[in-house]
Specification:
148 residues, mainly alpha, 4 helices
C-alpha cells in the first residue's frame, strides 16, 4: 500500500496580523472567482484571461506594498502569503529590481512568447511609441504600458 502524502504547512494557523489583511484578500479572492466564472462569449482566448491576470497582480502588489513599502506586516506573515500562494513570489522578486518596478506580469518579459525574441509591447515606454498610434494593449494580460 502506498504512503499517503500530507501537507503540513497548508493547515497551519496564519501568523499574527492576518486579521488585518484578511478582508482585502477575501475581497480579491471573491473577485477572482467571479472573473473565473465570467462568460467568455465574444472574447478572444487571451482576452478572457485578462481580468484574472489583473486580480492576481492586485493581490501580489497589495502584499508587496504592505511588506516592502509600508513595512506594516511581519516577515512571518509575508512568508505565509508566499507559501500559501496568496502572492506571487517570482513577480515580487522582479518588482524589487530596477526597471521592473511596475511590471504587470511575467509573461511580458519572456522572450520565448514573442515572434522576434523581444519583450512585449507594453514594456516599450509610451514616449518611444509613435504619437498618432492607437492605444496599445498587451496580448498576454491586457496591460496598456507598464514600463512608464
Amino acid at each position: 500500500m502506498p504512503k499517503i502524502r500530507t501537507v503540513r504547512n497548508r493547515n497551519r494557523q496564519p501568523p499574527e496580523g492576518w486579521d488585518l489583511i484578511e478582508p482585502t484578500i477575501e475581497e480579491l479572492e471573491a473577485k477572482m472567482r467571479e472573473a473565473e466564472s465570467e462568460s467568455h462569449e465574444g472574447k478572444r482566448r487571451t482576452e478572457s484571461l485578462w481580468p484574472i491576470f489583473k486580480i492576481h497582480h492586485q493581490k501580489s502588489r497589495y502584499i508587496y506594498e504592505l511588506y516592502y513599502k509600508r513595512q506594516s506586516i511581519s516577515k512571518e506573515l509575508y512568508e505565509y502569503c508566499i507559501k500559501n500562494r496568496i502572492a506571487d513570489a517570482a513577480l515580487i522578486a522582479k518588482w524589487k529590481k530596477q526597471g521592473y518596478e511596475n511590471l504587470c506580469c511575467l509573461r511580458c518579459i519572456q522572450v520565448r512568447d514573442t515572434n522576434f525574441g523581444t519583450n512585449c509591447i507594453c514594456r516599450v515606454p509610451r514616449d518611444k511609441l509613435e504619437e498618432g498610434r492607437k492605444i496599445v494593449e498587451c496580448i498576454h494580460c491586457g496591460c496598456r504600458g507598464c514600463s512608464g
